[in-house]
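Task: fold both queries, return tokens.
Query 1:
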Amino acid sequence: MLRFVGYGMFGWSAEIAWTAAYALVAALVQRRAVDLRLTGRTYLWMFPIYGAGGFAFESAHAAVAAWPLLARGAVYTAGCFAIEYVSGLLLKRLTGRIPWDYSYARWHLHGLIRFDYVPVWFTFGLLLEQVERVLRRL
């Protein structure tokens, strides 16, 4: 249960930081007023998705721990895309909407995942290796 909560909190925190940083960069690039409050956001639905996804990550990490960094990152990226796609599809069927609808983006698949987020999920997966180490010590 502690690891589930830990992964859920890490995912929430990372998403809030990501959305705040994304809004800041977008404002700078588009030469709009910058909101220095750096407001980020997430969804309640994301906590159980990140929490359960953490356990899927642990299985993947155990299988690829000895692999080179680029290979591990590629596996984590594919896993993040799979979890994001399936959980988005389930949420759409359950609620009628996708909380993170990416339909507006150029490189999306059914509005559920964005292929231009490969570096984000790659990095997120490698960070999860460190999060897992900390959570297992607790």
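Query 1 returned. Query 2:
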Amino acid sequence: MSSWIMRRATPHDWPKLEALLATADLPLAGAEAYLSDFFLAFRDDVLIGSAGLERYGDTALLRSVAVVSTERGHSLGQALVQQVLAYAASVGVRQVVLLTTTAADFFLRFGFRPISRAEFPLAAQASMEFQEACTASATGMSLALEVEQR
């Protein structure tokens, strides 16, 4: 099996990302506006995974973590999340939050902890995902980052 490559998303990638998120039953609302803060994984020019950030000052919403079913279980999702978290720290993000309906256990391994929707940072509450896309039953999670010194 050939290895995959990971890179930042470009506007040209949106149709492929839109299809991946739809297949994964993840919200599309707001994703395209933050495309420059997405990382995508490809195998032979086929999009096989994604993870993105919506940045709100020193807070960011981790969103759109998706891996095609044929690639699950090979640490790709983990690599994507690690890449996005490292990127977040490098651009001064101090807190990363997320909403998930199915993957809370996955995110615990990165140090995320469950929080109530009321504990969500106000900046992130403005996101389309928080406002419209994720159901009230979604689990909110938070992770404090060590910001890289420059």
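Both queries returned. Flag for query 2: The first helix runs from residue 14 to 23.
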